[in-house]
Amino acid sequence: MKKSGFAAIAGVLGVLGVGLVLWQRVQAGRRAQEEQQLIGRNVPSAPEFRRLLRRDLGLFFRQSTGLPVAVEPELLRREPVLTQVRYPRYYLWVRLLSHKKLLDEGVAVADAVSRTHFVVASYSSRSSLSRDPRSLDALVPEAVRPAVRAHLK
Fold it and tell me: Are residues 88 and 126 in the same domain?
């Protein structure tokens, strides 16, 4: 009789375990769906993406440097990272040019907003990253760091 009591408890625990696994899968599916919706609401269409990114990076750097600059952005990761800010975030290596001369280059972090524009959240120059390599840890997620380090070589 004791064995059947233990068997019943083990059976209940097994059912609860299966239920928990199923619940976790449903939650993961909901999170993935919410993330895709967030990306769809904020990331510009493919034809507009590069144009808007160049426009908004150019505006940011013209305002911060006071110089007429052209920007050459390179995505360090194709897919955006979703942050607590709740906007899709892109990590870029950006070259700043004035009259076809390189002024600066470094890592820019930009958020896609409402499919209409990007907001530059931060920029760290190559020289500042070279002086303080540990600052990279606070700037970009681990998955992006190898791409940044390749540019710093």
Answer: yes
